[in-house]
Amino acid sequence: MTKTISRPLLLAVSAVLFASIVHGQVVVNEYSCANWKQFTDNYGKHEDWIELYNPSASAVNIGGYFLSDDEDEPKKWQFPANVNVLPNSYLIVYASGRNEGGNGAALHTNFRMTQTKNNPEHIVFSKPNGQVINDIEVVKTKTHQSVGRLTDGSAEWRVFTAPTPASSNDGATNFLGFAARPSVNQQAGFYQDSVTVALSTTEPNAVIRFTTDGKEPDELSPIYEDPIILHQTTVLKAATFSNNPAILPSFIQFNTYFVNASHSLIVVSVGADGVKELANGDASLRPIGSLEYFGYDGVRKARTYGELNEHGQDSWANDQRSMDWVSRDEFGYNNAIEEKIFAISERDEFQRLILRAAGDDNYPAANKPQNEGSAHIRDAYVHDLAERANLRVDMRRSEKCIIYLNGEYWGVYDLREKTDDHDYTEFYYNQGKYDIQYIKTWGGTWAEYGDQQALDDWANLYNFITTNDMSNPNNFKQVAEQYDYESLVDYIIVNSFTVCSDWLNWNTSWWRGFNPEGEHHKWGYVLWDNDATFDHYINYTGIPDLSPFADPCNPEQLAGWQDPEGHIQVLLKLRENPDFDQFYITRQADLWNTVFSCENMLSYLDSIAAKIQPEMAQHAERWYGDFNEWQQNVEELRDFISIRCEALADGLNDCYDLNGPHQTVLLVDPPGAGTIKANTLTYSQFPVQTSYFGGVDLKLTATPAPNSDFTFSEWTASNHLFDDPSSPFTELDMTTPDTIIAHFKTTVATGEPGKPALHPTASAWPTVFKDHLDVNFYLPEKSQLSVTLQSVLGDVNVNLTPGTAARSEGQHTLTPDLGKYNLSPGMYLLRFKAGDFEKTIKVVKAE
Question: Rounded to the nearest 5°, which phi and psi values hold at 784?
Fold first, then answer.
């Protein structure tokens, strides 16, 4: 039952605004980090709370005092002015992170408390001068319990099973603490045949009770007497029960033992009362229990305690269902799964995860026409493509896994990162719970974070875009300061190229953050449920063509009910700006060349299918499917993608009156001298073999390598002319295949101004040559010099410094006529040697 802490009490303890400071000793009297669903604050939220008590006969003004959860930072949060605690009264402070209060309003710190950290937090209460009044190490409790002084203001502390915020601790139901947690002789993991498990405890005068069905042990559970022999996969849970009535039962020890089971994927074991009933369709349930994460090597890497709930709408009709996992610090075990789950991310702490059964691409799914062809791949595949290409959208990172529920095999799942969660935005962008505006559309539209202000702010920006001339640079600049238009473009391209039929009016979210020290300050987009892609499932958005030949500009037709929030209208207005329009068209071409190329899409699809294939026979058998049918479905998906990636080129030509694509090679001369940005992509490794469309400007930017002596020299191309070859910024309209080279030059370093270099130096230009090559070198002293040009295979060796005479100190240049050597096209090695100095430069003989 949820209770609201009395607001009149909160007001009463701070009502005497002008009371003088009296030197009574206000103290921390009680606290709770386990307020899961019990007491609400003034926002109706269940936050951790700290109770202060004034034992004196006079009001005490604690304005300017400090509270902290960190001994090393005792002044983390300061009480506003004129916060008074009445005599023999209490004051509640919420550790919510909101950082607000005063003038009679409820008080909220700028920090949140975590009771399950390995290095315990401390509640530090100190005076304005820094003198510490209380420094209390946080003690873990179970749900809806608190820790408080046995009697108000006393030195003795107890665990309360019925917390008393804003009221007296005297007479509260209290305990000395918890019994010692049982120990287990066998590690969780994988065993052949059977495993024998022995339990023990250091708690005197106590018994151990255990379960093997995923439920939590209670007073009626079997008492452990002899080692337990497990012949099948089992979640074993045990707890110590003391015969001392002042000692609470211990926290639960839990291990999963897999017997005669072997998997090629990560394995997740969930043990909870009611979890099978939830997974079998009872969406009303919120099971509480354990989760264990086993790596590819079968070793348990992490475990946690929390709750589960349903996940999915249409897909909830399938036999294999998705679920959400939430670790709960309030339960007293830990606040997150502490493991680096996703190979492509450094994040290693997850409070929330989605246990996703491939959504509406679930195989074998429900026996309905719209589910035919399901491959158990699409959704995560699309998000992974976006992540691997570093597109400007957020996405649910994924990892394939096997899930067991209460010891029963439940099939192949995806572990998915939850994006609509402040832990996500805080880790990747340093934007916390109260720093973000996050809007979602799923049938209707609402603010997940930011309340009505988020909706109002977005509406104002939308109205500005749609009612003003975006070809006006000032108007466009104003939009670009608030709106990540590149994210909009990437979001539309992903859904367009994959022929998604369930977005805009569904599964669309966009957000921004306000923390100036963080990132993502502009509205940007999030991928969400891309299982209805590649002509699969229901066309909820009314996409005009679901075939692999669908034009990439088809989304530009969507309006009204198909796009209730007008994201496409925003796109069309922004296209009034010629720079944006060039970006929009060339971004599509760039992504078709890279992430959505046939080579990339098909190779990654093959790798995903190969990864889960060893597991899909057992999965298909578990869910009454057929392994051969699944393979056929994957092949049909592959065929669709094969056609789609090829057809996109013609689609771009048709949509935007382009021609091509024209095969193009990009080079930098000399190698390593710099980078080339071509339209929306920047290249640093060469040669680049790509293609560009005509009919839209190819924008090129050459940039010297950082911390080098190179400067840009000129552009050259075999079949195109540049308006200003010496400018590092240029544009071309491609009409035919070509090789484009950005040339850089360097002057020989001479150390400090006015002083010669201390060591020999050498360079060559151009590094892509036909018959002539300038070889530059500097000698700090007279030296014997050898310069040779050798083929990579060593069958050609040309001495460019014949004779034995030593070279004098200073700058030298060789200009050998290489045409007389009849060199074959290809790579050569230009080798310098002067005393102990040696250097090799790669050069290329052009055809």
Answer: -80, 130
For range 86-105, the mean pLDDT: 96
pLDDT band at 846 (very low <50, low <70, confident <90, very high): confident
Q: What tens digit of pLDDT does each residue of 158-198 get?
A: 999 999 999 999 999 999 999 999 999 999 999 999 999 99
Question: CA-to-CA distance for 665 and 533, rounded, in angstroms?
Answer: 33
348/341 Cα distance (integer angstroms): 7
7: confidence class by pLDDT, cuts 50, 70, 90? very low
Per-residue 3-state assignment (H helix, E strand, C coil) for 583-636: HHHHHHHHHHHCCCCHHHHHHHHHHHHHHHHHHHHHHHHHCCCCHHHHHHHHHH
Distances in Å between the alpha carbon of 770 and those of 549, 800, 816?
A: 44, 16, 12
Residue 786 structure tokens: 């050898």
Q: Report the candidate in 252, 145, 256, 143 with the shortest Cα–Cα distance to residue 201.
A: 252
CA 540/CA 525 separation, integer angstroms: 20
Strands 436-442 and 300-311: unpaired
Exposed / middle / buried, residue 72 (Cβ in 10 Å: 0-12, 13-18, 19+): exposed
Exposed, middle or buried by CB within 10 Å (0-12, 13-18, 19+), for 353?
buried
pLDDT digits (tens, 9 = 90+) for 706-740: 998 899 999 999 999 999 999 999 999 999 999 99
Over the Cα atoms of the chain, what is R_g?
34
Taking only the tens place, the pLDDT of each residue in 693-703 is: 999 999 999 99
pLDDT band, very low/low/confident/very high, at 2 (cuts 50, 70, 90): low
Strands (E), 113-251: 122-126, 132-137, 146-149, 157-160, 174-175, 177-178, 183-184, 189-191, 195-197, 199-200, 206-211, 228-230, 234-242, 247-248
Question: What is the residue-averaged pLDDT of the chain?
Answer: 94
- Find the length of the chain: 847
Write the CA distances from 35 to 32, 171, 175, 573, integer angstroms: 6, 21, 18, 49
In this structure, what are the phi and psi dihedrals at residue 655, rounded to the nearest 5 degrees? -70, -40
Which residue, chain included where needed, has tokens 């559970």?
Answer: 221
| 428 in Cβ contact with 526 (< 8 Å) | no
d(CA 272, CA 259): 19
Please list, in sequence order, all residues whose beta carbon lies within 8 angstroms of the beta carbon of residue 231, skipping any fewer than 6 positions away.
Answer: 193, 194, 259
* Alpha-carbon 683 to chain mean position: 25
Asked if 476 and 470 touch (Cβ cutoff 8 Å), the reply is yes
- This prediction has a pTM of 0.88
CA distance 331 to 239: 15
What are the tens digits of pLDDT across the range 234-244? 999 999 999 99
Chain centroid to CA 65: how far? Answer: 38
Peptide bond into 670 cis (omega under 30): yes
Rounded-to-integer distance, Cα 5 and Cα 45, Å? 11
Query: What residues contact 78, with CB distance under 8 A and at least 6 apart?
Result: 64, 65, 66
Q: pLDDT (tens digit, 9 = 90+) per residue, 599-658?
A: 999 999 999 999 999 999 999 999 999 999 999 999 999 999 999 999 999 999 999 999
User: Is the distance from CB of 479 to CB of 465 less than 8 angstroms?
Assistant: yes
- Per-residue exposure over 309-346, b if at least 16 CB sit within 10 Å of its own CB, e if not: ebbbebbeebbbbbbbbbbbbbbbbbbbbbbebbeeee
**Portion of the chain with pLDDT greater than 70, in percent:** 95
Taking residues 575-598, report their average pLDDT.
Answer: 99
Distance of CA 842 to the CA centre of its chain: 40
Please give the single-letter amino acid code of residue 336: A
